[in-house]
């Protein structure tokens, strides 16, 4: 009986280097290839350019491949236990502690790990770089939010970014927990943080041209989808053109809030005068925005301020239903309560009518709530809306004070990264 051989592959693109290793694997026996699911791809390399089904189709047509199975995680545990392959084939470049785990699993029944050297050919490297470059292109990035919403079996985590550097933090920060890589799924270009970074108040004073410059700066160095905090969206006639520009740039979604007049930050609540738009006018704005779109990728998400402005749950729900009817691709329910109760109640009522319309939340004040609790409420997107700028400002302020205090920078230096680190950071 021929030996059972297993190897895993992302199969976003298959070049001669992959074929070489597949051929070697097949020479050992009957080859089963585990194709990484979209979710697994997302967790380590970012959104796959081709879907799982498309990648599977390619692999299953290779004559060396006897079976194709779905590999849902980067871990090998379940697949090795189920399949009990005689050989697991892997390239000789390893991530984290995977190799030790595979060896331990194989030892349980006498399976063997076969390592083949990676092909270090210049042309494959150039090819990989070209693929990586594609992730920066607007048409590739734009649809990633919608795709991620369809793929993810958990709420998407979104981190605030207000320039290239914070964009890089949102792009690159990763931890490994419970054997899974955890990272942010998208970026939020907050009006509060974009304004604060420019030393301006959050009152729609930083105009759209300037906001687009911030977005462009972030886009130049990142590949993850961008959700723009579009404030009120302005007058519908302007909103129409702004949707076109943002969509062309590769922004994935804009969230507009149902307020009019001089917009102030929602977290002021009713401490300052703020006026909510009429349902009719706001629905008109949504319709105008939707009519400007040319692709099905872009999303317009309607943000409801009823709970912020103490207008009650019924008003919030009525608005949500009306905005969805007007064409909103998602609903953001905002709250400045210190508990998640009102958001939970909103989600419960909304989900009775709409099972699939994405719900977005910004748990800044009710930050006791966990991601899994929000998942249970039916939330799809969790925005950490201001945490990078709020953590950076006190650190910078402290150092400025220390320099004044000591009339030199020696004492402040221990609060700073080293010159070597800053020079090699980028
Ligand atoms: C922002 O980040 O600018 C927001 C969210 O609009 S909030 O500050 O909570 O209003
Ligand atoms: Mg804002």
Defining key terms:
Rossmann fold; binds sulfopyruvate; globular; alpha/beta; TIM Barrel; 45% helix; 8-stranded parallel β-barrel; 5-stranded parallel β-sheet; 3 domains; binds magnesium ion
Question: What is the CATH architecture term of the largest domain?
Answer: Alpha-Beta Barrel
**Percent range for β-strand residues:** 15-25%
Per DSSP E runs of 2 or more residues, the count of β-strands stands at 17
Within the CATH hierarchy, at the fold level, what is the topology of the largest domain?
A: TIM Barrel
**Looking at this structure, what is the CATH superfamily of the largest domain?**
Phosphoenolpyruvate-binding domains
What best-fitting shape do the alpha-carbon axes yield?
globular
The CATH class of the largest domain is: Alpha Beta
* Strand order of the biggest β-sheet: 6-9-10-11-14-15-16-17
What does this structure look like?
With 426 residues, the protein is of the alpha/beta class. It folds into 3 domains: 4-130, Rossmann fold (3-Layer(aba) Sandwich); 139-385, Alpha-Beta Barrel (TIM Barrel), CATH 3.20.20.60; 391-425, no CATH class. Helix content is 45%, strand content 18%. The protein has helices at 16-26, 38-44, 52-60, 77-83, 98-107, 122-134, 138-142, 144-151, 164-172, 191-197, 208-221, 236-249, 279-292, 313-325, 341-353, 371-376, 387-406, 410-413, 419-425; strands at 4-9, 30-36, 67-71, 87-91, 112-116, 156-160, 174-177, 180-183, 186-189, 226-229, 253-257, 259-260, 275-276, 299-304, 330-333, 359-361, 381-384. Strands 6-9-10-11-14-15-16-17 form an 8-stranded parallel β-barrel, surrounded by 9 helices. A 5-stranded parallel beta sheet has the order 3-2-1-4-5, sandwiched between helices. Strands 7-8 form a two-stranded antiparallel ribbon. Helix 14 (313-325) links the parallel strand 14 and strand 15. The longest helix has 20 residues, at 387-406. Sulfopyruvate binds at residues 190-192, 202, 229, 265-267, 362, 364, 385-386.
């Amino acid at each position: 009986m021929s030996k059972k051989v297993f190897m895993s592959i992302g199969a976003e693109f298959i070049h001669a280097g992959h074929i070489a290793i597949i051929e070697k694997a097949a020479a050992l026996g009957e080859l089963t290839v585990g194709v990484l699911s979209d979710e697994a791809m997302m967790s380590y390399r970012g959104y796959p350019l081709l879907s799982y089904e498309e990648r599977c189709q390619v692999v299953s047509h290779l004559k060396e491949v006897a079976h194709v199975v779905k590999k849902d995680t980067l871990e090998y545990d379940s697949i090795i236990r189920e399949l009990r392959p005689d050989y697991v084939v892997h390239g000789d470049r390893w991530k984290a502690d995977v190799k030790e785990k595979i060896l331990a699993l194989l030892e349980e029944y006498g399976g063997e790990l076969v390592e083949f050297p990676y092909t270090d050919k210049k042309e494959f490297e150039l090819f990989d770089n070209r693929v990586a470059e594609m992730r920066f292109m607007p048409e590739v990035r734009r649809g990633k939010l919608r795709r991620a919403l369809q793929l993810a079996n958990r709420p998407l985590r979104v981190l605030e970014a207000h320039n290239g550097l914070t964009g890089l933090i949102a792009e690159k920060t990763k931890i490994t927990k419970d054997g899974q890589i955890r990272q942010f799924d998208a970026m939020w270009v907050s009006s509060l943080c974009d304004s604060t970074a420019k030393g301006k108040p959050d009152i729609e004073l930083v105009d759209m041209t300037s906001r687009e410059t911030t977005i462009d700066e972030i886009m130049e160095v990142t590949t993850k989808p961008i959700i723009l905090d579009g404030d009120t969206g302005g007058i519908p006639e302007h909103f129409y053109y702004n949707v076109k520009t943002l969509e062309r740039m590769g922004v994935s979604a804009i969230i507009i809030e149902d307020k009019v007049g001089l917009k102030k930050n929602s977290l002021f609540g009713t401490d300052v005068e703020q006026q909510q738009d009429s349902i009719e006018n706001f629905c008109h704005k949504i319709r105008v925005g939707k009519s400007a779109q040319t692709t099905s990728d872009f999303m317009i998400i309607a943000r409801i301020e009823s709970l912020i402005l103490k207008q009650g749950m019924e008003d919030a729900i009525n608005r949500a239903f009306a905005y969805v009817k007007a064409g909103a691709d998602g609903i953001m329910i905002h709250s400045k309560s210190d508990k998640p109760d009102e958001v939970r109640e909103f989600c419960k009522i909304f989900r009775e009518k709409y099972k699939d319309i994405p719900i977005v939340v910004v748990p800044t004040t009710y930050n006791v709530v966990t991601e899994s609790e929000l998942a249970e409420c039916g939330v799809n997107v969790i925005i950490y809306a201001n945490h990078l700028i709020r953590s950076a400002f006190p650190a910078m302020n402290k150092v400025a004070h220390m320099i004044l205090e000591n009339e030199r920078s020696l004492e402040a230096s221990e609060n700073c990264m080293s010159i070597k680190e800053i020079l090699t950071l980028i």
